[in-house]
Write a structure and sequence with these properties.
Shape: globular
Largest sheet: 7 strands, mixed
Bound molecules: pyridoxal-5'-phosphate
Number of strands: 13
Distance between the termini: 31 Å
Order of helices and strands: HHEHEHEHEHEEEEEHHHEEHEHHHEH
Helix content: 25-40%
Number of helices: 14
């Protein structure tokens, strides 16, 4: 996900404006900052571009999720239903607020299977958290209907799908809140950073306070701020927000190039009838940061990955099934609830239970899935060469395995 691929003078200019004032903090120092408020400005730009009424910047996507969950009142005794294919940050945030991450199966959208969500609902369920993985989206019609039926909160982990939409609505604005990540490998980057977006003023006010030690931000004297509740420090710095301000202006260029390159690569891979593609609930809203495709069996997929590796052309092709960060299969630390500080025994038991459930339905999908990251700096020749090489490897493996290609 390529924000960093388009790094140039615009980012340097924004950062230099902050360096010239020397005020690196987003709050206070009204005089010396000489009217430079990069974080506030970026929040305004996020609202404009992503169609939310409010935005609260944070230090990361992980802290944005944690902040949103706190603002939604998720905590002890609550369960949050989330997919077993995501990034570790999604369950870390649930644990951080003291709730139970209830991992459930995905389907060929590579995010929550609505039927699995339905089956996992208990009287303790408070929130459903779809994770819009790899640039595309969950089946939000089905999930919003479930949330309505059972009176559950919907929190969108939109960290990987900035700029995607569902039936015309930006991802992150469909549930009560959405979380973005602006870490170094996201569609737009601040270096490190994140944001909660929401249309609800009460949630925004809580995010604003929670991410800054519970400050009420009512006056100009920080020392006189009241603390209506206990918060934390999840603030972003002005330097990071400055980078984001330059990046957000490039987002439509990035999305346009991704869509074009994604379509070209898809055309090339479509030559192989054994390849099928990820189910996209609203193809027009796909941000196209990845092209995710399936092969007929786990054996063929692993053989293709091994062959790409041995030919030194694996880079940019992700086999999540074997990845330590993104799929339940390799999360032994979660399965054993290994933590540095003690977890409440009730939470620990629940974590171990939910992380050790049967995920064979997801295994059957993930073991056949490869996601190819879409570059924004690829030339047409490089794109064609990349696609042709992948196709050649797949055909060779299919032939070797006795499948007619
Ligand atoms: C799905 C998902 N959620 C949350 C995060 C956390 O974002 P950050 O790295 O900014 O903390 C990431 C980061 O990769 C992610 O992919």
């Amino acid at each position: 996900m390529p924000g960093f691929e388009l790094w140039s003078n615009e980012e340097r200019k924004e950062v230099n404006e902050v360096l010239e004032t020397g005020i690196l903090m987003r709050y206070g120092f009204d005089g010396p900052r000489k009217g430079i408020w990069k974080s506030k400005q970026l929040e305004e730009e996020i609202c404009k571009r992503f169609g939310s009424r409010y935005a609260q910047l944070t230090s990361s996507g992980t802290s944005a999720l944690t902040t949103a969950m706190s603002a939604l009142g998720i905590g002890y005794g609550d369960e949050v239903i989330m997919p077993c294919f995501t990034f570790v940050a999604s369950f870390e945030s649930v644990l951080r607020v003291g709730a139970v991450p209830v991992l459930v199966d995905i389907d060929e959208t590579l995010t929550l299977n609505p039927e699995a969500v339905r089956r996992a609902i208990t009287p303790k369920t408070k929130c459903v958290m779809p994770v819009h993985m790899c640039g595309s989206m969950a089946d939000l019609d089905a999930l919003t209907a479930i949330c309505k039926e059972y009176n559950l909160l919907l929190l969108e982990d939109t960290c990987q799908s900035i700029g995607s939409s569902y039936k015309g609505k930006p991802l992150g604005t469909i549930g009560e809140a959405g979380a973005f990540s602006f870490d170094f490998v996201k569609t737009m980057t601040c270096g490190e950073g994140g944001a909660v977006i929401t249309n609800r003023e009460d949630i925004y006010q809580k995010c604003d306070g929670y991410s800054d030690h519970g400050h009420d931000h009512q006056g100009v004297d920080r020392g006189a701020d009241l603390h209506p509740f206990i918060g934390y420090n999840y603030r972003i710095s002005e330097l990071h927000a400055a980078v984001g301000l330059a990046q957000i202006k490039k987002i439509d260029t990035v999305l346009g190039i991704q869509k074009r390159n994604h379509q070209h690569l898809k055309n090339v891979l479509s030559q192989v009838p054994e390849i099928s593609f990820r189910k996209i609930p609203d193809p027009a809203g796909d941000s196209c940061t990845f092209l995710s495709w399936f092969l007929p069996t786990a054996e063929i997929t692993r053989a293709v990955i091994n062959e790409l590796k041995s030919q030194n052309i694996l880079a940019g092709n992700f086999y999540w099934f074997d990845n330590n960060w993104h799929y339940i299969r390799k999360w032994d630390h979660l399965k054993n609830a290994t933590s540095l500080s003690s977890l409440h025994p009730e939470l620990r038991t629940a974590v171990i239970h939910h992380a050790n459930k049967d995920f064979t339905a997801s295994d059957a999908i993930m073991s056949r899935c490869v996601s190819t990251a879409i570059g924004v700096l690829w030339t047409e020749e490089q794109l064609k060469e990349k696609g042709d090489k992948i196709v050649a490897v797949i055909k060779e493996v299919l032939q070797r395995q006795g499948v007619n290609a």
